[in-house]
Structure formats: C-alpha cells, structure tokens
Amino acid sequence: MKKTLREIYGAGILFFYYFKWPMVIGYPVLIEFVGYPRHWSMDILWVYCVILIIKDFVYKFILKKSYCQEGSCSRNSNKDIDLNHR
C-alpha cells in the first residue's frame, strides 16, 4: 500500500511539473477561441496549476531557495570524472 501511494505521488508530481504551463495557457485559449465548454473540474485544475506556478516563483525569486540540496543539482558535482580524457 505504501509503495502504491509513493508511485501515485511521484506520478502526480511529474504530471503537474509538465502540465501546469500548458494548462494555464491552453485552457483559457480553448474556452475563448475554440468554444470549449467550461467545467468545474477543469476550472479547479486550472486554479491549482496557477497556484503551483505562483509557488515556484515565490520559492525561487522571493525566498531564493532551491529544491535541491546543497551541491546536488550543480553541473560540477562530478568533478572526479574527466569526460575529455580517453
């Protein structure tokens, strides 16, 4: 049960990581220009994606924090490996 919940949580993180920008931009375009009917569940998803985008901006630019631990996201974390040496 715990493994299943972790997999669902991980899938949700990946889904909203790639889904938030197309949803925030695309859903209003679909409503206004294509005539897509509004539905309360899509409106809730749109608001949730807007909240996620605001949270990302606040976290990065106002609080100046990173989601990665110190040095784990840097490009120079593998200084021991010399890729030019053959």
Task: State the main characteristics.
single chain; 86 residues; mainly alpha; flat
Protein described:
The protein is mostly helical and 86 residues long. Helices cover 65% and strands 0% of the residues. The protein has helices at residues 2-34, 40-62. The mean pLDDT is 83.
The major β-sheet equals: none
What is the percent of helical residues? Answer: 55-70%
Low-confidence runs of at least 5 consecutive residues: none
> Quaternary arrangement of the chains shown?
single chain
Percent in strands: under 5%
Order of helices and strands: HH
Number of strands: 0
Number of helical segments? 2
Whole-number radius of gyration?
A: 19 Å
Structural class: mainly alpha
Average predicted local confidence, pLDDT: 83
Measured between the Cα atoms of the first and last residue, the distance is 47 Å
Q: Looking at the structure, what is the overall shape?
A: flat
Layout of strands and helices, then pairs:
Blueprint lengths: L1 H33 L5 H23 L24
Helix pairs in contact: 1-2
